[in-house]
Amino acid sequence: MINIYVDQEKLLEKPVTKKEKTDIRERCLDNYREVTRDEFVEILNSSLSFIPSKTKNKSNKDEEFVETRVIILDVDNTVKDENNNVVDLSKDDSRYLSIEKALSIYLVRNFAFAIQKSIRYSEHLEKFKIVFILKEAITDHSKMVAVYEYLKKNIPGCDDNVKASNRMFFGGYKSDAVIIINEANTLDIAEYPIDFTVTSSKNCQNNLGRHYDVANETDFVKLIKNEDREEMQQWFKDCLFDPSDMSFNEIYERLLTIDMNKLLKSSKNLRCLFHDDHNPSASIFTGKSGHSIFHCHSSNCGVSVDFIGVVMLILKKDSRVEAFNWLLENLDLYPTHFRKLKEESKVLFDTLESMEDKLFRTIKNYLEEMRRVYDTLLLDVQFLDYSKGSLTCIMSGEQLAKKMSFYYGEESVSSVGKWNKLLSFMTFIGLIKKLDDDDIPMDMLEYLNKQKKDKALREKGGNSSYKRSNVYRLNAFNATSVIQELTENIMPSLEKYHFIYQHFSYAWVKMCFSEEEAKKVFPQNSRSELSKEKQLILDEAHEVLQGLSWQGTYIMTEKELTNTVCERLRNVGNNSVENALKENRGYFVKQGFTLERASKDIKRLYNVKASSSFLVYLAKGAGIDEVIKELILSGVELVPLYQFTSVTRDDGRRVRKRKDPIVLN
Questions:
Q1: Residue 393: is it exposed, middle or buried by C-beta count within 10 angstroms (0-12/13-18/19+)?
Q2: If you write DSSP's letter for every residue of 487-553 in order, what string do you get?
Q3: Does the pLDDT at position 460 exceed 60?
Q4: Same domain, yes or no, for 160 and 60?
Q5: Phi, psi at residue 325, to the nearest 5°?
Q6: CB 165 within 8 A of CB 147
Q7: Beta partners for 616?
Q8: CA–CA dist 4, 36 (Å, integer)
């Protein structure tokens, strides 16, 4: 049998962003299988990504490798030019390896199982994988790497970066992606002169052009820029630690104590990482805090930074938070409480997607975007977070807009308001929590204010109106409880107040709920009050609705209310009145009026005749008891109270008289 982790979603195009690749890998790791050769061919032909090995703890670390029966060589027919840019090889180039040429190679023709065309395969540029099935499974990571090195040496033209089966391979070209060379072909590694005495760390000459135990400063910079997790974890293996029970601040402090001399495997004199340094001018020393400091003595440079600062400068990140999160992801340093929260969030959003037809329309319409925002917050944790149960994240609409451009294109960058609003909506329905200054740890608040000041000086010449990023907390939760809260409390409230996402604002939440609730939801720079004109319109409409009872009328359509207010406020434009009343329907519900859509059942309940369905307001107290309403709708012959009126007969006696139905055109 073949051990394999398989994605459950077909790949339509090769993923570009790290987030897309991570999502695919996580889906693969959630679906472990043991398959036959025929089933393996089906996977190769299905455009599904896969990891052809078995590992412990869903990890790609060397020490977590368990076994594999598959070796896959990758051929992409590209090289790097003198400017380090990737360029395609011409078919006339002697280095170009076509499928036809590959099949003529002895090892491939006689021992390879199949060839799979890659997702970016074309007749003009052949990109493909050569698949070997081993006679016996390999259970040692270094042996597996040695087999890869032997095969690549004897099959020129294969990608040197592909050197292990515990990595992910993206789905193939399309349904006819696979060429079976020979169903019976098997590779018996015992028959070949493979040197298994050389460990992977010394045997693998990687694309940085060095052995792991022979390093220099340039190699380290290339390592960081290449963002290869396997390479990173191998280089850092002597510096890594178990983060399971640590807070993010503890992980951060531990990273700062990494001995950069040991990490760079260097002598006392170093070439600076940040400028052309022909004469070594840098050194590493331990500061008073116990942190390892990289310092350049050149007067033209003068860089003096700790380990996080080094990574930040190499990657040109905007903040230490970004550099910290980059290290968490690439070195797999997430604590247990993070992993649990991530798993529970997946359960939550998967469950919400499965009950799509039952969701309130706004939640349904924005579910995909909310999921991506939540995942983005997970990857932006603050290093001054001391909690071991929740996560604290820093995010502004501007930052989020840039991150969302990976999914929604460059137009997202200019949609700052859109993403600020979605963050507030997610806060409103309880998915995340916005922290006010009083809730933020003092050192984190100082960090944010300094960041705000630095950016203001850099971008606006010291403009004090520059706003700092917001702070959000992702609390540990149970998906079932969150869904119950949404369905039993939040969605009924949204329906009650006739919520429309377009009109979601600080003013709306303040009117329908409270000022305190609105402040919890919206950051300070998004708290806009109602204009004087809108307040005037609402006051006038409220007075009109108040008059329904003493006029003996209990019902009024929204259109009629709009026309009445327009007649009373002749200096205000009709569109302004109409928009103000639509945007703030919840205000009148909050004031005690009933707002219903005049459906067939509602018309029956309230003794109304109308040719179409539209919104109607009922006077305060004119609602029908829920028990009575259920009886009427179930067919019991009850007559609504408001079908009757009291009249005085000639003899002075008051009697009840049936009212004619209210006719609404």
A1: buried
A2: IIIIHHHHHHTT--GGG--HHHHHHHT-HHHHHHHS-GGG-PPPPHHHHHHHHHHHHHHHHHHHTT-
A3: no
A4: yes
A5: -65, -35
A6: no
A7: 557, 596
A8: 10
Q: Is residue 496 part of a domain?
A: yes
Measured CA angle at 14 (ends 332, 328), to 5 deg: 15
Specify the amino acid at residue 124. Answer: H
The string of DSSP codes covering 194-242 is: --TTS-HHHH---TTSS-TTS--HHHHHHHHHHT-HHHHHHHTTTT---
Domain boundary among 181, 203, 225: 203
- Of the candidates 168, 188, 190, the one whose C-alpha atom is nearest the C-alpha of residue 55 is 168
On whether residue 210 sits in a domain, the answer given is no
pTM: 0.63
Q: What confidence tens digit (pLDDT) does each residue in 288-339 have?
A: 888 989 988 887 888 899 999 999 999 998 889 899 999 999 999 999 999 9
At what angle are helices 248-256 and 307-315 packed, to 10 degrees?
90
Asked if residue 612 and residue 494 are part of one domain, the reply reads no
- Using the predicted structure, report yes or no on whether residue 441 has a pLDDT greater than 80: yes
Q: Residue 650: how many CB atoms within 10 A of its CB?
A: 5
Complete edge-to-edge strand list for the sheet that includes strand 114-117: 54-55, 65-75, 128-138, 114-117, 178-180
Residue 314 — φ and ψ, nearest 5°?
-60, -45
Q: How many CB atoms lie within 10 A of CB 467?
A: 15
**Which two structure tokens, joined as six digits, stand for 116?**
């799979």
- The predicted-structure confidence for 379-436, as pLDDT tens digits, reads as follows 888 888 888 888 999 888 888 888 888 777 776 667 888 999 999 999 999 999 999 8
3-state secondary structure 651-664: CCCEEEEECCCEEE
Beta strands in 374-508 (DSSP E): 391-395, 433-434, 470-474
Same domain? 541 vs 495: no
Same domain for 246 and 106, yes or no, is no
Q: Is the dihedral of CA 77, 80, 85, 89 positive or negative?
A: negative
- Between strands 470-474 and 433-434, the pairing is antiparallel
The terminus-to-terminus CA distance of the chain in angstroms comes to 73
Reduced 3-state DSSP string for 71-133: EEEEECCEEECCCCCEEECCCCCCCCCCHHHHHCCHHHHHHCCEEEEECCCCCCCCCEEEEEE
Residue with tokens 């989020």: 400
d(CA 567, CA 569): 6
In a domain, 437, yes or no: yes
In a domain, 388, yes or no: yes
Q: Supply 617's token pair.
A: 């307001």
The identity of residue 632, as a single letter, is I
Query: Which residues, listed in sequence order, are joined to residue 305 by a DSSP beta bridge?
Result: 294
Q: How many domains does the chain have?
A: 4
Please indicate, yes or no, whether residues 351 and 457 belong to a single structural domain of this protein.
yes
Amino acid making up residue 19 = K
Distance from C-alpha of 627 to C-alpha of 94, rounded to nearest angstrom = 84
Separation of alpha carbons 440 and 449, rounded Å: 12
**Strands, E, within 276-358: which ranges?**
282-286, 292-296, 304-306
Tell me the C-alpha distance between 462 and 320, whole Å: 21
**Structural domain for 426, as ranges:** 336-526
Distance of CA 577 to the CA centre of its chain: 39
Give the whole-angstrom CA distance, residue 248 versus residue 338: 9
Task: For residues 142 and 264, state if they share a domain.
Answer: no
Domain boundary among 173, 203, 233: 203
**Is residue 238 domain-shared with residue 163, that is, in the same domain?**
no
Are both 49 and 172 inside the same structural domain? yes
